Fold this sequence. Notes:
It contains 13 helices and 17 strands. It is an alpha+beta fold. The strands form four sheets. Strands 1-4-6-10-9-8-7 form a seven-stranded mixed sheet, with helices on both faces. It has a five-stranded mixed sheet with strand order 14-13-15-16-17.
Amino acid sequence: MCAKEKLSELLKICKKYGYIATIFGEKTILSRVPYGPLGMEMKKNIFDDWWKTLTMATDVNIFPVSTPILKWLKGGTTKTDSIQMRSSLSKDTMGHYLSVLQTVNCQLPFGIVHSGLCFKSDPFVNLTSDAGILMNSDVSSKHYDRNEGKIASSLISNIWNPLEKTHLMLMFFCSPKSFSSWMEYWQKHRLSWWRKFSGMPTRFSLAGSVSEGISLQFTVSSEKITFETITTKSGHLPEDVKDQTIANRSLVPCVIECEANLDLAVLNYLFDAYQESENDSKTRQLLRIHHQLAPYKVTITACGATNKLRDLAIYITRQLRKANVAVFPNPDLYCISSLDTQFNHFDEMGIPYCIVLSEKTLKTGITGLRNRDTTITEQVHVKEMKTKLLYYLQM
């Protein structure tokens, strides 16, 4: 299957199961990626792990900050107020350097993480103009900025190249003497972090040079999507930072800037997860999403559940949700629908595990736990289900 056909099938599944909302009209220009409920959960899971990894699981001090999305500018000669819309988090993040420097008692190295919306349109929007300008701006491929890369197919470029995009920023400050080692460290760190969720890690790669900027790329067929850049701002610090650190040269840092497009990251992992296989002349589609990123970790299946089985399903669901395991509410649990049909349905949704209930479960307490990737069902007692799932999900 060529990349274009694969992207077309992926888009159908994304719309069918709520990773993206249905878009009315092929030529609609979108202000942001129209995520459905599963898409929002997956995006949140990527963000949560990125945030936790950088702020909690590294050996350096990294601090979170936030800034306003829009800035109001008073009109000058035109006497018309404007809104300044950022296209990057770089300037806003740099603005926190001096305050964080004081927090750490002027000790390098340290980092700052920042996330938020950035805008693709012109940086200034006249407040008197029609608000619809954000829906009519030109977003053709010739206007992609460097963080967007080239989307492999026009079938999805309109959806994943919106006017608003969510960026993730890590800005790291270190001494000039340690710059080379830290630059190498962050290149390896960022690449290994993106790869750990991939079914085919070699699709993620580094390109470029330190002097011109490093790009983290995802390969789609022969195309490469740049979704994160690693650049240095050494020697290009803002004047206010220079003025207040010039008295102590040891406080004039080298800056390593890692900025990623979260929306493109979602696309990368969806494309990476989509697989097809032939079985008895039937095509099996599934989203093999890493269990840490999967919107829902487990669902409960049965073939025509009785009232007692329904009560048991409710009990298991409550126990798992108390343990912070996302359980998908199976709408076919109360219908006479074959287990194979339900399994295929949830495989396409990307749910890693299915708990299988039957009338025997009421007598013996034994349930089935089906793995999406292997299609193997193992027997697990109801009392052990939560412990077993938490072990498999590494929670």
